Hints:
The chain is mainly β. It is built from no helices and 11 strands.
Amino acid sequence: QVQLVESGGGLVQPGGSLRLSCAASGFTFSNYRMSWYRQAPGKQRELVAAVATTGTHTHYVDSIKGRFTISRDNAKNTVYLQMNSLNPDDTAVYYCNAEDSAGNLYWGQGTQVTVSS
């Protein structure tokens, strides 16, 4: 069955870094645009970053530009989110998302990122 399993979240101090991973299985990973979303308490889920099927094109929300980097390894069926210079506003549950051109859409279960001193 389809699975998206996020890992790498945790507690980090302001200014620190984390690397999130999302391991995919059960579908043809290379056919899917991969994205990271996040949802902070009391807020709507928002798109953070996305990467096209081949990894050549990426998109970032303005608030994380220059600090976060999305990448994918189609050989490993994995998408990553490198997060640097973290601040408390980045505290949220981070979700992995897969979507193809036919509208098939999958979500992971989420991983908590907490930025606090």
